[in-house]
Amino acid sequence: MSTNSRSGYLPNDNPPPLQLVFLGFQHVLTMFPATVFVAALTGFHVGTVLLASGISTIVALALSKWRIGKFIPLFYGSSFSYIAAYLSIVTEMTGGLPEFGVPVPNEVISTMQAGIVVTGILNMLVGLLIKSVGKDALDKVLPPIVTGSVAAIIGFGLAFAALGLAEANWLVAIITLLLTILFSVYLQNKGFIGMLPVLLGAIAGYIISAILDPGSVDLSSVAAAPLFEMPVITFPSFSGPLVGTAIFSIAIMAIATIPESTAHLYQISLYVDRFAEETGQEKYKLEDHIGFNLILDGIGDFLNGLVGATAGTNYGENNSLMAITRNYSGPALMAAGVISILLGFVGKLAALVGTVPLAVSGGLAIYLFGVIGMQGIALMQEHNVSMFDPKNLAVGATIMVVGIGGNIGYEGGFLPITLPGFPNGLPAIATAAVLGIIINAIFLVFAPPEVEPVAEPMPEVATD
């Protein structure tokens, strides 16, 4: 354990009991806005998602300590990468988008659970593959031009859905959007409060909506809700006409979370090893366990799919919190998991989330969905993807047009191509991802000539 508790904690350090509670609660506050937002937006039960988030986090931490002798300090919450797939399934099965904070029928959740369970299995298989052949081999099949473009279309493909929420009250939505942006920019690096721009934006938007549009806020459901209630547990259904569609459209989105999860592991590994060096302790070298980390991701999604929660991912927000506070303690994250589980039994919490006005959620969605899209572009920039290379242009162009155009232009985001198992058509974003993978695979098998780097223009020489 660190000799000076004020300096921070390494993953295997165990803070005193009271510190465990406060450090764990801080983690929960950090993950809460995004995790609950995904559940409320897509029609899942908020309590169930909080329950599963805590369980997935605790299981992953326990397995890492048991298997490699050290905690991999990551928190698992709802992933935004699957939102478009969820909304497509909900729209097809119910005839419209879900009301914010109002769960959809259990049979709809059960259908989506089939895809989430398969997502977990896919992640586990990819993790085993990386452990056996190495990450470089996977990067050839899923290069940044594929993963970055898919991440981009997930965000931009949801643009119309965000505007649909915002039109409930454009003024409230725009104010919420602007305030959330201001919080995220001007509170950056301002300590713990800088980690909560979305939560602060939601609270501010809620208050403004209550003032400008009093009828948009109704707290009667909160008063009527029990303080404590059992989370709603549903089980996956592998029957029904849209099960194949759900599995395909949801599971394939794992290709967007795999590079995200890997990047988060590299990030936390760097922070942990640097802190270990500063305190004169042995490095943890967590980056050596990329494959195992993806297996843990898969186990988390598998568990989520079994009980009726959204597919998850490890959270970069909590990584940033750990970097700021220098608290990388695995037991503190376990405490956060326990707190998340307990929150899942608070009935009034789910009811309160359900009172968030549509326009407020629309303002948040415009920002969050746009950020998802921009992060896809940033991923390609970070890996120096050349847009002068015809191969990259072909892969990226196909994914972008089919994914964005199909998701916005066709009802429910389904391309009008019916196949066995896809009676309502092919989900546009998932189809775009598969097309990108296929085109990239063709280039791997039949290697085209290398593109010469574009020469820098010669500087002009001043002449007399």
In the sheet with the most strands, the strands line up as 1-2
How many helical elements? 19
| Percentage of residues in helical conformation | 55-70%
What is the SS-derived class? mainly alpha
Number of discrete domains? 1
Gyration radius (Cα, Å) is 22 Å
* Gap from first CA to last CA: 70 Å
Tally of strands:
4
What is the makeup of the main sheet?
2 strands, antiparallel
Question: What percentage of the residues does DSSP assign to strands (E)?
Answer: under 5%
Rough shape?
Answer: globular
Which segments are poorly predicted (pLDDT under 50) over 5 or more consecutive residues? 1-6
Mean pLDDT: 89
Q: What string gives the helices and strands in order?
A: HHEHHHHHHHHHHHEHHHHHEEH
In short:
The chain contains 19 helices and four strands. The protein has 464 residues and is mainly alpha-helical.
Characterise this structure:
With 464 residues, the protein is mainly α. The chain has one domain. It contains 19 helices and 4 strands. The chain has helices at 17-42, 46-68, 83-94, 106-133, 135-141, 144-156, 159-166, 170-186, 197-212, 220-224, 243-251, 254-278, 290-307, 316-325, 330-343, 347-353, 358-382, 390-409, 428-445; strands at 76-78, 312-314, 414-415, 426-427. Strands 1-2 form a two-stranded antiparallel sheet. It has a two-stranded antiparallel sheet with strand order 3-4.
Question: How is this fold's topology laid out?
Answer:
Layout: H1 17-42, H2 46-68, E1 76-78, H3 83-94, H4 106-133, H5 135-141, H6 144-156, H7 159-166, H8 170-186, H9 197-212, H10 220-224, H11 243-251, H12 254-278, H13 290-307, E2 312-314, H14 316-325, H15 330-343, H16 347-353, H17 358-382, H18 390-409, E3 414-415, E4 426-427, H19 428-445
Antiparallel strand pairs: 1-2, 3-4
Helix pairs in contact: 1-2, 1-15, 2-13, 2-15, 3-4, 4-5, 4-11, 4-13, 6-17, 6-18, 6-19, 7-17, 8-9, 8-17, 9-17, 12-13, 12-14, 18-19
